[in-house]
Design brief:
The complex is a heterodimer of chains A (112) and B (114). Chain A is mostly beta strands and 112 residues long. In chain A, 0% of the residues lie in helices and 54% in strands. Chain A is globular, with a radius of gyration of 13 Å. The chains are: A mainly beta (112), B mainly beta (114).
């Protein structure tokens, strides 16, 4: 059974640019969540999508956005990148919204 | 105060030891409790997923939830060097506006020495 697939694995971007990260959830999983992981703040919730609708959003600025497609695949976008956006971005999927999420390996974003 | 508190360690034990990892939380609305293991440069791997209070066992791993004390634990029996990783507790509730959102502890770094 294929796991959660995130692409790309690594990205280097310049401050001010924008970036799009992709996530393919486990087949049949309709809930997809995104998290930012940094050494100082740990894992922080960005947003959750279920049936193509954003159901929940964390305390991040509007520069962070996402969407989910009809096949449950999801993308997140960060515009006007800042140095502080450097982090591991993790996508997770679950058949239900209560928990038990399976994570991907993440996209390591470095902003220079 | 953070919603979920977890001692970051590091915790170092000899091979074969019983390991106890713990988290405390403040939000009584949490109903679902998870433990994840994360190796360096990898995403978190779900180890245990429990609902409400009680114990759950899976191989060498036992998860305990005490909602009255707002305290959860993960026990690892016969620890192996391959268990060396960061362990993260996570919690969620189904209250309005919070479904689909996991709140994580800071993670405990465990080293099991051969």
């Amino acid at each position: 059974k294929a796991g959660v697939t995130q692409t790309p694995r690594y990205l280097i971007k310049t401050r001010g640019q924008q970036v799009t990260l992709s996530c393919s959830p486990i087949s049949g999983h309709r809930s997809v969540s995104w998290y930012q992981q940094t050494p100082g703040q740990g894992l922080q919730f960005l947003f959750e999508y279920f049936s193509e609708t954003q159901r929940n959003k964390g305390n991040f600025p509007g520069r962070f956005s996402g969407r989910q497609f009809s096949n449950s695949r999801s993308e997140m976008n960060v515009s006007t990148l800042e140095l502080g956006d450097s982090a591991l971005y993790l996508c997770a999927s679950s058949p239900v919204r209560e928990g038990g999420y399976t994570f991907g390996s993440g996209t390591r974003l470095t902003v220079v | 105060q953070k919603e979920v508190e977890q001692d970051p360690g590091p915790l170092s034990v000899p091979e074969g030891a019983i390991v106890s990892l713990n988290c405390t939380y403040s939000n009584s609305a949490f109903q679902y409790f998870m433990w994840y293991r994360q190796y360096s440069r990898k995403g978190p791997e779900l180890l245990m997923y429990t609902y409400s209070s009680g114990n759950k066992e899976d191989g060498r791993f036992t998860a305990q939830v005490d909602k009255s004390s707002k305290y959860i634990s993960l026990f690892i029996r016969d620890s192996q060097p391959s268990d060396s990783a960061t362990y993260l507790c996570a919690m969620s509730s189904v209250s309005s506006g919070n479904t689909g959102k996991l709140i994580f502890g800071q993670g405990t770094t465990l080293q099991v020495k051969p």
